[in-house]
Specification:
486 residues, Butyryl-CoA Dehydrogenase, subunit A, domain 3, six-stranded mixed β-sheet, 12 strands
């Protein structure tokens, strides 16, 4: 079933507990901090049902249509289909939604390519995939322990409960969990939260190994939002990105939350809690989506850089052209890495194909390393222009101020209004709180940089590299003077 946008909005009015500081939010679809972003998510659902997108964003099986990202790939064509769907969704949000509905769903879809990894919970992960697919639900995840919980001895010495989410007891009909997880991006707009552990756990952390799915309105679950940027974006002209593309981030706090056994995927197994990501196609499916989403964002950034240069006539400057050429090359590099993931697909697991993991992790590392420098280039192209604009578009409410503005701010290259509109967007990318969040977010999107590099280390064919060196070493012996000395 393909959900409508209206159905998704209605599903968010489910009694979930959301806090902005000390304020309890009762309806995220109408609250000034979330309402426009909620409608952007709803628009993604409506886009899937549009006739022109139906065969791009969904597939048919047994007479029913399902979202494209629920399709496990059995061929390169299937991978290309999935990738194109990710790109369409990313284009609709200009790459600003890192955890759009196709992200965690891709993890779950990749996981069912090897349900055996889940052991006794194999049937649960398959059933959960069917549930997400058939209800067209939006799931997000919280799969990192809070920083407060990384020194358990601190809490033991003070006889305090460990803040990290863990199982506190088992019942016949499920487990009960309490504690905190981070960071549930998009959770205030989602239907369910996947709780898990992407980082390795120690053997004595079995209680924390719980991996499960919890509805966002589960009794005892609350979402503690960071500062919403939409709250201060009263006019779209002045904050064109924060106004409708602030996907939000929340800490997840559980207080005696009941999880039925059918929604449990890992329990009392510290090693398995991480294996389910890397020994299935889940991590690769999900992070291919990340690469594609970044690529859409990259095209916005490159186009913005060029428009900024044109607005001042600087685009004819050889140095500026060189800078723009560098950005264009960077965008093409990422595009090539993404295409390579399809062309170099792996026949793995048995019966399925997966995006090339080496190329995917290389692209993930590239994205992590380069976002800051890309933004810095755009910042330099902006110069002081972002500070020369009026505070906000309220000047257009006064005809006299409008005439003055249009007289003195117009340039040979652009009208005053177009310049202001452009540089308001530029500030949203390089200097606003929204921009700062994205700068931090992209740097740690897939974990700390050392984590991303470790993925590349894990998947590198070291034996092949060593064979190349050994082949060269074996191709010659001790000769010349050294041989005579010997």
């Amino acid at each position: 079933m393909l959900k409508t946008g209206a159905q998704h909005l209605e599903s968010l009015r489910d009694g979930r507990v959301v806090y902005i500081g000390g304020e309890r939010v009762h309806d995220v679809t109408t609250h000034p901090a979330f309402r426009h972003a909620a409608r952007t998510f709803a628009a993604l659902y409506d886009a899937k049902r549009a006739p022109e997108n139906l065969d791009v964003l969904s597939f048919e099986e047994d007479g029913e249509r399902y979202s494209a990202y629920f399709l496990p790939a059995k061929s390169k064509d299937d991978l290309a289909f999935r990738s194109a769907a990710h790109r369409k969704i990313a284009d609709l949000t200009y790459g600003m939604f890192g955890r759009s509905p196709d992200h965690v769903s891709s993890f779950v879809t990749g996981m069912i390519t090897r349900p055996d990894v889940f052991g006794r919970f194999a049937g649960n992960i398959q059933a959960y995939h069917r549930h997400l697919r058939e209800t067209d639900s939006y799931a997000v995840y919280a799969i990192i322990a809070p920083q407060a919980g990384r020194q358990p001895e601190f809490y033991r010495e003070r006889n305090l409960p460990l803040p990290t989410l863990q199982v506190v007891r088992e019942d016949d009909d499920g487990v009960v969990v309490s504690g905190m997880k981070m960071l549930a991006t998009g959770a205030v707009f989602a239907n369910e939260i996947w709780i898990g552990n992407i980082m390795p756990l120690a053997p004595d952390q079995a209680a924390q190994s719980i991996t499960c799915a919890i509805p966002c309105n589960a009794p005892g679950l609350s979402l503690w939002s960071r500062k919403p940027f939409e709250l201060d974006a009263s006019r779209e002209f002045d904050n064109p990105l924060a106004y409708r593309f602030d996907e939000s981030d929340s800490m997840v706090l559980c207080d005696e939350v009941k999880v039925p056994w059918e929604r449990v995927f890992v329990h009392n197994d510290a090693a398995l809690a991480r294996k389910i990501y890397v020994e299935t196609a889940g991590h690769c499916y999900g992070n291919h989506q990340s690469n594609v989403r970044y690529w859409a964002k990259m095209q916005l950034l490159v186009g913005l850089a060029s428009k900024i240069a044109q607005s001042s006539g600087a685009d004819d400057n050889p140095k500026v052209r060189e800078t723009l050429g560098r950005l264009a090359a960077m965008e093409a590099t990422l595009g090539g890495m993404i295409m390579g993931q399809i062309q170099g697909a792996e026949s793995w697991p048995d019966g399925y194909v997966t995006f090339n993991r080496r190329f995917m992790y290389a692209a993930l590392n590239w994205c992590t390393e380069n976002y800051s420098s890309i933004i810095d280039i755009i910042r330099e192209l902006c110069g002081g222009s972002v500070f020369q604009m009026p505070a906000d578009s309220s000047i257009f409410d006064d005809p006299s101020l409008t005439r003055t503005f249009e007289t003195f701010w117009t340039t040979p290259q652009s009208s005053a209004v177009d310049r202001m509109k452009l540089f308001k967007l530029a500030w949203e990318v390089v200097g606003s709180e929204f921009a700062g969040r994205h700068l931090q977010y992209e740097k740690f999107y897939a974990g700390a940089p050392f984590v991303v590099r470790n993925y590349n280390f894990m998947h590198a064919p070291w034996a092949e590299f060593h064979e190349v060196v050994d082949g060269l070493l074996d191709s010659y012996g001790v000769t010349g003077k050294l041989a005579r000395v010997a």
